[in-house]
Amino acid sequence: MSADLDKIAIDILQANDLGGYTIPTKGLYPYQWNWDSAFVAQGFATFDVNRGWQEIETLLQGQWDDGMVPHILFRKDDPTYFPGPSVWGTQNRALPSSGHSQPPVAASTVRLLFEKDQSATYVERLRVVFPKLLAWHRWYHTARDFDGRGVIAVMHPWESGRDNLPDWDGPAARVDTSGVGDYVRKDTSFVNADMRPRKTDYDRYLAILQFGRECNWDAEKIARDAPFYVADPGVTFIQLRADRDLLALAHALGETAALPEIEEWIARAEQGIELLWNPDLGAFTTLDLRSGVHGEGVSSASFLAPYAGICKARYLEPTLAHFDRMMSKVTYGVPSYDPDHPAFESMRYWRGPVWGILNYMIATGFAEIGETERAERIRKDTVALIEKSGFAEYFDPISGEGAGGNSFSWTSAIWLNWAS
Ligand code: 2M8
Description:
By secondary structure, the protein is mainly alpha-helical. The chain has a single domain, classed as Glycosyltransferase, CATH 1.50.10.10. The chain has helices at 2-15, 34-44, 49-60, 85-88, 106-116, 120-143, 157-160, 169-173, 199-214, 219-225, 233-253, 259-272, 313-328, 356-368, 372-389, 409-419; strands spanning 32-33, 72-73, 153-154, 230-231, 277-278, 283-284, 287-288, 394-395, 402-403. Strand 5 (277-278) and strand 6 (283-284) form a beta hairpin. The termini are close together. (2R)-3-hydroxy-2-(alpha-D-mannopyranosyloxy)propanoic acid is lined by residues 24, 29, 33, 35-36, 71, 158, 161, 163, 187.
């Protein structure tokens, strides 16, 4: 079974490889996505380390002058996706892209790739990639932590990668959508609308996008005035992990000049994450930086604290209690949102379904702090889901049914790199 699935996973990655870069799935997502590519590179590296590096290198080709690495690279125009480059206002750039970023997984991937093979050719490639990753991390720590609080904000739900998480509902409700006008969604022509964000969500997505485009994606204007600016435990924890991995890479290369800056980011985040601790809930949640209000639900990103190296008992004990409670409510974990919360929807995208990439990161963190039983439950659930429903984009935590796109790259990648 495992060998058959290995072959299918490899075939999916190769079929979604459009020549040095990989799309998440045919039809629904026809471009290169940022954190998808970071996971895909880990999958490729299980059978072709060179191809893994190439995925990261092509992703970094889209880097903006200010260091930002966009969430989508529009390598060739494809009218089957909305919103495309003309909506983002980037159609005249050398490599058209979206205007904001996505969770910075790439440095963690590069560390994994480098640990697999440290021969001279990869040292050279690391030397080229390292300053680009450093610039991207610096961008995140300035543009999206403008006041140096030690937590990373997202200016768009898409920047978080967890598009319609219920915790965005409150902050996004303040977005004025009166200027959005008519538009035609393409996603619902590929996937049942019940599994996708609602129209209200899309109106808000487009209104926030318009704000970004009109201010030319200016970090200070975004930090001060964007209609949506919410500190996210998902991106903050992934960034913290990636900073630790970047630090290890700096040591490996002897890049001593970079060390103090990266160490400062880590120290600041270790303090800053206290801001994301919701004392009423006993969990890390979002924090709306406009209103000062915490998200009111436990999401799977709450369980990324160990992945980020955050394991103080004060945080860990309540976090694990939530984990056990939520896992007891589902057949397959980890649900992306609390099944006890009224906003939970088992099939609607980031409002409940299980995502393989989150499972991989959560289980990795748990294993690293010795929570092996919980880590193993997550891995086994992931295996069971893929055996039952194939390499779907995401899964219903109650029925185990696959949802969203099929033959999905990141699900195949985490299978190869971790679950199998
Ligand atoms: C989903 O997001 C895109 C927008 O970026 C979409 O729905 O059109 C999210 O799951 C995101 O995290 C992911 O990177 C992307 C491609 O898999 O799809």
